[in-house]
Write a structure and sequence with these properties.
By secondary structure, this protein is mainly alpha-helical. It contains 19 helices and 8 strands.
Length: about 500
């Protein structure tokens, strides 16, 4: 009960600081963030929000995102939703009350705010990446669950245990991956404004066994050819065909003609064009990934591991999901994820160094102790927004740790020991159940564990010796109570002479 009261208290503290229930248009959450759609961004009190004990930072993107950390966000969100519902029931919607300004003035104000936000966040590139993420992120829970079952099944098969059960486990692990194109098509059509089930219907053509009897570009097609990339392209095409039909087909015939033409036209293009093209692209992705790590594994791993943390900070890492998924479809695992996971190891090492370098700053040390378990399991955002990014240099030295860890795993890939993951989502120690490779689970796990240790030590040493200037060390290495927290729960320094730093471009 005490935990429920704590979560409700956190939700109650956040609600008035985002403008109250009437200002909230949508509520969602991911692994670490409470994501809010807001009517009026100017009503948000950023500094007061960062001072709420459970809040580790805030990020403004297409939604207003409050970083609460894993576990906490899943428990606070339902309480927040309930408070919003109660607030809306008790207080009339401001749009229905007698306004103090004219409707034209309110519309002009809203248009100006919308334009300002678009100028900041709605670049074509970011909108494209956001759509890609919206298509694939909902699939991650199934990818994780099926991936872990696949790993368990592989272990049992190698040991020769429970032979009567392993076929059932194989079916559970493989069923989703066999039909993942259908789910991608469904989500793609939904994201691009079409009828989701039509997108799924067209994408289902790709995995239908009967396509093996069809010849295109002088060769027989194979079920699954083109994979998720083909499904994505087919569903996008279906959306455009459907929208064209909605404009030109008479309403009386719409229910019959529109879905028929949508499936027929986009289906024919998929069979006699997209499947072949997407198949070639998918093959090229797999070939390039193998070539990159076979010929420049250490260098490639160093670069990828070092750059991934900034991608996480900017939310751009989700654009890699189609590449991971394509590699899993082709090879059974993605060799990129274990390398990218080293960024989290560098972050953990950097946080540990900050803990030892600031022995008198109880606020920062308390934040590190609370966020470190999540960091060890691969959820790095609490440490990013609560510790390293606001301090500046430790964020850079954390990237250095990730680079060395990535270089370590990349080197073994170059030497012929592939380290991959059968699913996407987890990293850190949570990735062990999903590991796979070409030289057995023991070797794969040992290499990955070695990479984590290298990332920890490199991030720690780089931060301990190079993460603080003399002025920064003097400023932060002082005894501070929670109310005067510099980083701690605020997500950024809030001393009078040090304004809170926001991550650039987020």
């Amino acid at each position: 009960m005490a935990t429920e009261d704590k979560n409700r208290a956190t939700a109650a503290a956040i609600l008035p600081l985002v403008g109250g229930a009437a200002n909230v248009s949508s509520i969602a959450h991911c692994m670490t963030r409470l994501r809010l759609g807001l009517h009026d961004r100017s009503l948000v009190d950023d500094e007061a929000l960062k001072a709420v004990p459970a809040v580790m930072g805030v990020v403004e993107d297409d939604t207003y995102q409050i970083v609460l950390g894993p576990g906490t966000v899943a428990r606070v969100t339902p309480e927040f939703e309930q408070l919003v519902e109660e607030g809306r029931a008790a207080v009339p919607d401001p749009g229905e009350a007698a306004p103090s300004v004219s409707a034209e003035e309110l519309a002009a104000q809203g248009a100006a705010m919308k334009a300002a936000r678009k100028a900041k966040n709605a670049t074509p590139f970011k909108l494209f990446l956001r759509r890609i993420a919206n298509i694939f992120v909902p699939l991650i829970p199934a990818l994780i669950g099926c991936g872990i079952i696949a790993g368990l099944n592989g272990l049992l098969v190698n040991l020769g245990w429970l032979t009567s059960v392993t076929p059932a486990l194989a079916a559970m692990a493989s069923g989703f991956m066999a039909l993942i194109a259908v789910f991608v098509g469904y989500n793609t059509a939904k994201e691009f404004g079409g009828t989701p089930i039509l997108g799924g219907a067209v994408a289902a053509i790709i995995v239908f066994p009967g396509v093996a009897n069809i010849e295109a570009f002088g060769q027989k097609l194979s079920p699954g050819q083109g994979g998720v990339l083909g499904a994505l392209g087919a569903a996008v095409l279906a959306v455009y065909v459907e929208k064209w039909c909605r404009r030109w087909v008479p309403e009386a015939l719409d229910v019959l003609v529109t879905p028929t033409l949508t499936v027929l036209v986009s289906g024919l293009v998929t069979i006699f064009g997209l499947m072949y093209v997407a198949g070639e692209i998918s093959t090229a992705i797999g070939t390039f990934a193998d070539w990159l790590l076979s010929n420049g594994g250490a260098g490639a791993g160093f670069v990828l591991g070092g750059l991934f943390l900034p991608l996480v900070m900017l939310g751009l890492h989700q654009a890699l999901i189609p590449i991971h998924t394509t590699l899993i479809e082709q090879q059974g695992y993605t060799v990129l994820l274990p390398i990218l996971a080293m960024a989290g190891a560098g972050q953990v090492g950097a946080a540990a160094a900050v803990y030892f370098r600031l022995p008198r700053n109880e606020s920062i040390r308390r934040t590190i102790k609370s966020a470190l378990p999540a960091g060890l399991l691969g959820v790095g955002e609490p440490l990013i927004y609560g510790v390293s990014l606001p301090l500046g240099r430790p964020f850079i030295t954390a990237c250095v740790g990730g680079a060395f860890g990535g270089g370590f795993i990349g080197l073994f890939n170059q030497l012929g020991d592939k380290v991959g993951s059968t699913a996407i989502g987890p990293s850190g120690w949570a990735l062990f159940p999903l590991l796979d490779g070409n030289h057995g689970l023991g070797t794969t796990a040992a290499i990955y564990a070695g990479g984590l240790l290298v990332g920890y030590f490199a991030g720690f040493l780089a931060t301990y010796f190079f993460g603080f200037s003399k002025d920064l060390l003097t400023e932060f290495n002082v005894s501070q109570e929670p109310a005067e927290s510099t980083v701690a729960a605020t997500g950024g320094p809030t001393t009078p002479d040090t304004p809170t730093k926001e991550p650039a471009g987020v």
